[in-house]
Write a structure and sequence with these properties.
This protein is of the alpha+beta class and about 100 residues long. It has 1 helix and 4 strands. The protein has one helix at about 70-90; strands at about 10-15, 20-25, 30-40, 45-55. Strands 1, 2, 3 and 4 form a 4-stranded antiparallel β-sheet that branches. The two termini are about 20 Å apart.
Length: about 100
């Protein structure tokens, strides 16, 4: 069965540590980015987007933002993906 099994997505959500958070603007509204969504692509590479809350408060829209090209954020993504792989490999099944 393993050869025929197609896994369409592997994704994790990671909280961005306070010191690494940043603010970005979309449609005239400023957002503080607090979460990374990291996806494992079929070719083995990673894709990442950031999500957050409006600076002014409230829920705001669920809007993705690009992640800045900073070594600290790249290290966070790498560490989170590696940790997720360890957790998946050690799963204990249902229930």
């Amino acid at each position: 069965m393993s050869g025929d099994l197609e896994v369409s997505a592997l994704a994790i959500n990671v909280t961005i540590p306070q010191a690494l958070r940043w603010t970005d603007t979309r449609r005239g509204e400023a957002f503080t980015l607090t979460t990374l969504n990291i996806r494992l692509l079929p070719d083995g590479h990673l894709a990442v987007k950031a999500y957050g809350r409006p600076v002014g408060g409230g829920r705001g829209a669920y809007v993705s933002f690009p992640v800045p090209d900073k070594p600290e954020l790249a290290a966070l993504v790498d560490e989170a993906a590696s940790r997720a792989g360890e957790l998946w490999a050690a799963h204990r099944g249902l229930g």
